[in-house]
Amino acid sequence: MWGTPKNQTRLRFVQDSDEVLAALGRALADAPEDERPGLQRALAVARAARLDEDTLRTRWLDGRLASVAFTGERDSVAAVRALRKAEPTLSLTEAVALLRPRSHAPSPAGRLPVRPPPSSPAGA
User: What gap in Å lies between CA 38 and CA 20, rounded to an integer?
Assistant: First the structure.
């Protein structure tokens, strides 16, 4: 079967900070001595401003939900509806996955973790 599996989110959060950091590094390498302190400071600021994927995801979700005036709980059906209203191309599965906290993501095998059976009482 071709295409994206139905349970896989197609949305990816991308930032261009790697390119900005690389460009600042090149500029710093070629800079005259009088420009180096300013470029060093700019490089430090750019490194500090770099965001991880979870932060980018949270900011994107905040913006999309705010665009449809949603202020409720993120773990609600209403949040899924609001996100799909803001982003009509998202499937139901994608919207639910995006709103689910990262700690509740499926296990690598795509299955729920297996719990060991309860231990039996001693002497049974």
Answer: 15
